[in-house]
Design brief:
Elements (H helix, E strand, L loop, with lengths): L11 H14 L12 H8 L3 H13 L3 E4 L5 E4 L5 H12 L5 H22 L2 H14 L6 H18 L3 H21 L13 H8 L3 H35 L5
Antiparallel strand pairs: 1-2
The chain binds zinc ion (ZN).
The site of zinc ion (ZN) has 7 residues, from α7 and α10.
């Protein structure tokens, strides 16, 4: 008997998922659109209901569609986000495979460049938006969720202004990870991000000063990094104590 190579059978559902994904990626389906029904997909692809369902599930897991129940239920296309990536990062953090210093280091590298570009590309509309964000940041903090929400805005908007969508996606993903880590680790704190930290950055961007904006953002990233690292140290210690028993409880 000659030696044959085994043939890898591509699963039918993977093929269905791949074709649907392609049509989403090229814009044949847009965010908010509903995919054809299971029955229609079965007929179109000439495959079983099981294969269609599996394909839809994998698209859902990959963050391309969401399943809605009810009369107008079905698989709806959602805006592609980095939520999945953020979740994966959070798992890696919880498993101690990504540390806060590593996260902060990446932010310190990326965000000054984002601020620099934002100062170059700033428009009047965004000047107004940024000024409004600074006002919101000065209001009293109601809860940790509220604090995170408000303090994330400036970073997100600067990323929008910077004009590079890959950088924007990276920043937004990094913000999500930061947020998830804080919520997971420090839910009893009211504020993690002191007010006023963004003022020098935002002011430099509004004034169209790229070098100053980058410098100010670098300082902010380093300062906030210190806060995050102190938080992580306390967290890992606490988790460590839990494992050792409750003699300190
Ligand atoms: Zn900040």
């Amino acid at each position: 008997m000659p030696k044959f190579r085994p043939i890898k059978q591509t699963r039918v559902s993977e093929e269905v998922a791949e074709q649907l994904k392609q049509s989403i990626l090229v814009g044949e389906f847009r965010a908010g659109d509903k995919l054809p029904s299971e029955r229609e997909l079965m007929e179109e692809f000439q495959v079983s209901r099981v294969a269609v369902r599996e394909a839809l599930r994998s698209l859902e897991n990959a963050g391309f569609v969401e399943t809605r129940q009810g009369a107008s239920g079905g698989a709806y296309i959602i805006e592609l986000t980095f939520e999945n990536l953020a979740n994966a990062f959070l798992d890696l953090f919880l498993a101690d495979k990504i540390s806060i210093p590593e996260l902060c280091n990446v932010r310190t590298l990326i965000e000054p460049e984002v601020a620099r570009l934002a100062a170059i590309n700033i428009t009047d509309e965004y000047r107004k938006k940024l000024a409004h964000i600074l006002e919101l940041e000065d209001l009293p903090v109601k809860s940790l969720a509220d604090d995170i929400e408000t303090k994330t805005m400036a970073h997100g908007v600067l990323a929008e202004i910077c004009g590079n969508r890959f950088l924007e996606a990276l920043v937004k993903s990094l913000m999500r990870v930061t947020r998830k880590v804080i919520e997971e680790v420090n839910p009893n704190t009211l504020s993690m991000h002191p007010a006023g930290m963004h003022r020098p950055v935002v002011q430099a961007v509004i004034n169209g000063k790229p070098v100053e904006a980058a410098q100010a953002m670098r300082i902010h990233a380093l300062e906030f990094g210190e806060i995050m690292m102190a938080m992580e140290e306390a967290y890992r210690k606490e988790v460590g104590l839990d494992i050792c028993g409750d003699e300190n409880a």
